[in-house]
């Protein structure tokens, strides 16, 4: 009798162990299927410094591209979290930290007496919670050290950088007859770093520069400063550059559109724009700050058509128009758009609009190809650049995750405009020519569309 009871207890014990093991394996399979990578456990005493930071060799939260409308709101500084505990002073000189510089992840040595410093009390805590990506305009100005800007000299005269021949990058011929590079440099959210970053981009070989008239998010004047300096130095001729700006919806109306075009020409120091876009079809929320436009996007489009005929603008297009608005534009316009700019990445591929553009011979241009918009939607890290499939393909190809998703977009006929304030990443993001993703890799990345990971 006693042996039978003992046998039953042993059976129950081993059955429980088997159930626990199967449960553990199921959880691991779920992690793998959703692309979650469990971070390595931080070393004792450094948890406050290294928590929630991805591996620097394989992930890099990058905001590529224009333009999150939440930036138009009068944002206060980020909420003040408890300041993180300082690391052991004896380890300061050798500690290496991953910083989230609004569109990159980089390693910086933490030095005791750095000439570049934070100007706000809780920068380190804000940076660790992702604010360098979510609120770059504030963070890049007030929290340079925590956001990883202290390794790059802002001196506009520094010329050392690797560069690519712009002819190797490739271009497309628009329905306007003009050529547009496949890869450009986006300038949204760079704040006071705009001139320096744009100058680095031009030196690296970018010839397409994307900006806008929204001072809440863009510094068109500083883009112009970099362009004027580059042209004056003999780095390129004006006709070799492709300069884009965008009309704010609060300035809709025929006469207002023409006046604002002249403002952009003055800011940028040029006689014409290569591409002028309507940034949004209408004001909504706090986008226009209570300003009542003088007209509608239709009035502004008629003005764009006149400006193109006058030679002030070579190509015209729209940004953030939905499918119905694009179809209305197609029926109504005398000159069809050359370019349609919208948000697209591997989780949100925007297939319907892309197919419409292809059928109409409109060039599709993607912003936030690198996934920065997901940071605005609650993710603490960039899910595009940290997804297991993206990282696996990057390792196989010997490329960065950013290069892989940019190459995916280009092979789908998209023009891309990644942005960065880090000189090395600026050059790296341009290096997406001369190699391709195979059909199997494209299939894997295509399968991510419509399946973003859960907010963590």
Walkthrough of the structure:
Helices cover 38% and strands 12% of the residues. It is elongated and about 100 Å long. It has 456 residues and is an alpha/beta fold. It has 17 helices and twelve strands. The longest helix has 33 residues, at 2-34. The protein has a domain at 166-446: TIM Barrel (Alpha-Beta Barrel), CATH 3.20.20.100. α9 crosses α10 (297-309). The model is unreliable at 30-115 and 151-160 (pLDDT under 50). An eight-stranded parallel beta sheet has the order 5-6-7-8-9-10-11-12. The protein has a two-stranded antiparallel ribbon with strand order 1-2.
Tell me the CATH topology of the domain at 166-446: TIM Barrel
Taken as a percent bin, the fraction of beta residues is: 5-15%
Helix content: 25-40%
The helix count comes to 17
N-end to C-end Cα span: 53 Å
Mean pLDDT, all residues: 79
Strand and helix order: HHEEHHHHEEEHEHEHEHEHEHEHHHEHH
Q: Which class best fits the helix and strand makeup?
A: alpha/beta
Could you give the topology of this structure?
Elements: H1 2-34, H2 47-50, E1 96-101, E2 104-109, H3 123-128, H4 131-134, H5 136-142, H6 166-169, E3 171-173, E4 179-181, E5 184-186, H7 194-204, E6 208-210, H8 220-232, E7 242-247, H9 254-268, E8 273-278, H10 297-309, E9 313-319, H11 323-332, E10 339-343, H12 351-360, E11 363-367, H13 383-386, H14 388-397, H15 401-411, E12 415-416, H16 423-430, H17 439-446
Parallel strand pairs: 5-6, 6-7, 7-8, 8-9, 9-10, 10-11, 11-12
Antiparallel strand pairs: 1-2, 3-4
């Amino acid at each position: 009798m006693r042996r039978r009871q003992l046998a039953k207890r042993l059976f129950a014990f081993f059955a429980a162990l088997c159930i626990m093991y199967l449960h553990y394996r199921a959880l691991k399979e779920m992690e793998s299927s959703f692309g979650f990578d469990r971070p390595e456990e931080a070393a004792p005493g450094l948890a406050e410094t290294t928590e929630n930071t991805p591996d620097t060799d394989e992930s890099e939260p990058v905001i590529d591209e224009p333009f999150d409308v939440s930036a138009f709101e009068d944002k206060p500084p980020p909420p003040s979290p408890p300041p993180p505990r300082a690391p052991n002073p004896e380890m300061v000189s050798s500690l290496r930290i991953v910083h989230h510089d609004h569109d990159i992840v980089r390693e910086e040595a933490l030095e005791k007496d750095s000439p570049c410093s934070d100007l706000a009390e809780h920068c380190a805590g804000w940076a660790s919670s992702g604010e360098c990506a979510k609120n770059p305009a504030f963070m890049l100005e007030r929290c340079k050290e925590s956001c990883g800007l202290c390794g790059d000299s802002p001196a506009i005269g520094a010329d050392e950088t690797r560069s690519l021949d712009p002819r190797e990058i490739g271009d497309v011929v628009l329905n306007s007859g003009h050529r547009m590079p496949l890869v450009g440099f986006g300038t949204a959210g760079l704040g006071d770093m705009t001139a320096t970053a744009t100058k680095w981009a031009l030196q690296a070989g970018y010839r397409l520069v994307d900006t806008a008239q929204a001072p809440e998010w863009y510094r068109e004047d500083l883009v112009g400063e970099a362009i004027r300096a580059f042209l004056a130095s003999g780095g390129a001729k004006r006709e070799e550059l492709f300069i884009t700006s965008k009309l704010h919806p609060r300035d809709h109306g025929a006469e207002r559109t023409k006046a604002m075009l002249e403002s952009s020409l003055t800011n940028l120091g040029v006689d014409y724009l290569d591409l002028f876009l309507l940034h949004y079809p209408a004001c909504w929320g706090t986008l226009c700050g209570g300003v009542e436009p003088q007209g509608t996007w239709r009035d502004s489009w008629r003005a764009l058509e006149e400006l193109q005929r006058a030679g002030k603008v070579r190509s015209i297009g729209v940004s953030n128009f939905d499918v119905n608005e694009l179809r209305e534009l197609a029926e109504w316009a005398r000159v069809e758009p050359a370019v349609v700019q919208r948000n697209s990445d591997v989780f949100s591929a925007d297939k319907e609009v892309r197919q419409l553009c292809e059928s109409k011979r409109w060039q599709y241009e993607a912003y936030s190809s690198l996934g920065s918009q997901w940071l605005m939607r609650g993710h603490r890290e960039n899910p595009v650049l940290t997804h297991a499939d993206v990282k696996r393909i990057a390792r196989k190809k010997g490329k960065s995750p950013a290069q892989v998703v940019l190459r995916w977009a280009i092979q789908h006929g998209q023009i891309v405009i990644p942005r960065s304030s880090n000189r090395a990443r600026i050059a790296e993001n341009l290096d997406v020519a001369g190699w391709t993703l195979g059909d199997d890799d494209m299939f894997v990345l295509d399968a991510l569309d419509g399946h973003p990971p859960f907010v963590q």
